[in-house]
Structure formats: C-alpha cells, structure tokens
C-alpha cells in the first residue's frame, strides 16, 4: 500500500519488529494494517526498542521503504487494532471529513 505514496511524506504507526529482520541503520515496522515496512533511519546509530509502538514521519522511497525523518514512541497500551479501524473509516466511509 505504501507504494502509491512514493516520494510523499507519510505518517506510519506500528510496532518495531526484532532487529535481525533489517539491515544496518534500518528497522522493520509492523504497521497497524499488519504490513511489514522497512524503515531507513536518518541517523544509523539510532536504535528503537523491539515490540515498542512508534509513530514515524518520513518519505516513501521508490523501493517502497520509508526514509525516517522523525519518530515518537507511543505508550505500551496503544491499541493498533482500533487505530487501524479509525484509519479505515477515515479513508472510507468518512473520507469526505478528512480529504478533498
């Protein structure tokens, strides 16, 4: 799904997967829709806690990965399922409230 946003800034919320699934300076994020997304960190020395939920702002590359600009940790009790339901409503039934 990210590929349709190539070269655009997006916000992605998801859970960080164990680091052995990504290369140096990268991490894998399990998004709210259960899609795995490779995220390239702006600072390759930055580490994120596995299983922690983050919001990541970045640009989608031509390879379908995300180039991180900034990230924010969310609380442990953030409900990704409810967040995904809200996104489905915002992009579906109630899209006229959020988009042109």
Estimate the mean pLDDT confidence. 90
The CATH topology corresponds to OB fold (Dihydrolipoamide Acetyltransferase, E2P)
Count of spatially separate domains: 1
How are the strands of the largest sheet arranged?
A: 1-2-3-5-4
Q: How would you spell out the order of helices and strands?
A: EEEEEHH
Strand share of the residues?
Answer: 35-45%
GO molecular function: damaged DNA binding; single-stranded DNA binding
Main location: nucleus
InterPro entries: NA-bd_OB-fold (IPR012340), Rfa2 (IPR013970)
Subcellular location: Nucleus
Question: What does the model show?
Answer:
The protein has helices at residues 80-91, 95-98; strands spanning 9-16, 26-31, 36-40, 53-60, 66-73. With 100 residues, it is an alpha+beta fold. It has a single domain (2-98), classed as Nucleic acid-binding proteins (OB fold (Dihydrolipoamide Acetyltransferase, E2P)), CATH 2.40.50.140. The longest helix is centred in the C-terminal third of the chain and has 12 residues, at 80-91. The chain is globular, with a radius of gyration of 14 Å.
Q: How do the helices and strands line up, and which of them pair or pack?
A:
Blueprint: E1 9-16, E2 26-31, E3 36-40, E4 53-60, E5 66-73, H1 80-91, H2 95-98
Parallel strand pairs: 3-5
Antiparallel strand pairs: 1-2, 1-4, 2-3, 4-5
Pfam families: Rep_fac-A_3
Family: Belongs to the replication factor A protein 3 family.
Protein name: Replication protein A 14 kDa subunit B
